[in-house]
Automatic annotation (TrEMBL):
Pfam families: Mrr_cat, Mrr_N. Residues 6-90 form the Restriction system protein Mrr-like N-terminal domain. It comes from Pseudoalteromonas aliena SW19. The gene is mrr. Residues 162-281 form the Restriction endonuclease type IV Mrr domain. InterPro entries: Mrr-like_N_dom, Restrct_endonuc-II-like, Restrct_endonuc_IV_Mrr, tRNA_endonuc-like_dom_sf, Type_IV_Methyl-Rstrct_Enzyme. This is Restriction system protein. It comes from the Bacteria.
Length: 307
């Protein structure tokens, strides 16, 4: 089951604060999760950074929105308490979500706050509370980055396919080096020149001392799926070089038989398809440059500590 969006956490959070006590969010988070009926698997899901679970992340944003609307107050850092507005919201029996919170001017001010304070702002309250309302601001950023990276991956593949076969073979070696495998670019370049036989497109040291070598095969295809015969031929080429490890990289994809075959043989052959290739290039900044950097900042509580 998908995890409920952050708005779904608002009503149970208010219910857990209905006794009027001032508590830390961490003291009642388990009660909120029980009211929502979250499963153990749902509670294990973590945001991409891995720093916290999705459940606590969304609970935190639910609290933030309720605070901004005036349904919860924070008498001191990390503590929260329900207000009269919050109690009235519970008594109303209405679903507590962005649509409900939009009745409060403080909430609308929070949602439409702009740095351009001297410029007139036109507000569409319907779009404010409905557009992307199932995601927290950080999740919206993550989704935007995913969309940009998906588009960039398509551009990378098109650029690879437009380049020469030799360029692609060099790219494969560059990628292995960027991932931290040993040797130098000079050594790797020489390797690609003298191994253009037997189905080997490149050789790279697994470690800086070259105690073991990794052999590379690069196939620049568009619609053709790499099948088991191609992988068997590559395995045979590894035998010719008495090699135990190989990486087969393609811009297309692998057939089911090819994927099953590498799991049946003693040699260690890693298959990298087009999607994984572009993902690795993005991860290791190969063939891409940083266009914008956005910083998400949080309160430095140590700065505000008084002796």
């Amino acid at each position: 089951m998908p995890l409920p969006d952050y708005q779904s956490f608002m009503t149970p959070l208010l219910a857990c604060l209905a006794n009027g006590k001032t508590v830390k969010l961490r003291d009642i988070d388990a009660d909120v999760y029980r009211k929502l009926g979250l499963s153990a698997d749902q509670l294990k899901l973590r945001i991409p950074s891995g720093k916290q679970t999705y459940a606590y992340h969304r609970l935190g944003w639910a609290k933030t929105y309720l605070v901004q609307a005036g349904l919860i107050e924070q008498p001191k850092r990390a503590f929260c308490k329900i207000t009269q507005k919050g109690l009235a919201a519970i008594e109303s029996g209405a679903p507590i979500n962005n649509q409900y919170l939009s009745k409060f001017d403080a909430f609308l001010d929070f949602k439409t706050r702009s740095k351009g304070a001297n410029e007139p702002t036109q507000v569409n309250t319907t779009s404010i509370v409905s557009n992307n309302s199932d995601k927290t601001p950080e999740e919206l950023l993550e989704a935007a980055v995913d969309t940009l990276n998906t588009n960039l991956s398509d551009e990378i593949l098109k650029a690879i396919l437009a380049a020469s076969p030799v360029f692609f073979e060099n790219l494969v070696v560059d990628l292995m080096l960027a991932m931290g495998y040993g040797g130098s670019r000079k050594d790797a370049g020489q390797a690609t020149q003298y191994t253009q036989d037997g189905g080997i497109d490149g050789v790279i040291k697994e470690d800086k001392l070259g105690l073991e070598m990794i052999y590379l095969q690069a196939k620049r295809y568009t619609n053709k799926t790499v099948g088991r015969p191609d992988i068997q031929a590559f395995a045979g080429a590894l035998d010719m070089h008495r090699a135990k490890k190989g990486v087969f990289i393609t811009t297309s994809s692998f057939s089911k038989d090819a994927l099953e075959y590498v799991g049946m043989i003693e040699k260690r052959i890693v298959l990298v398809d087009g999607a994984q290739l572009t993902e690795l290039m993005l991860t290791h900044n190969l063939g891409v440059s940083t266009k914008h950097v956005f910083e998400v900042k949080a309160l430095d509580s140590d700065y505000f500590m008084e002796d």
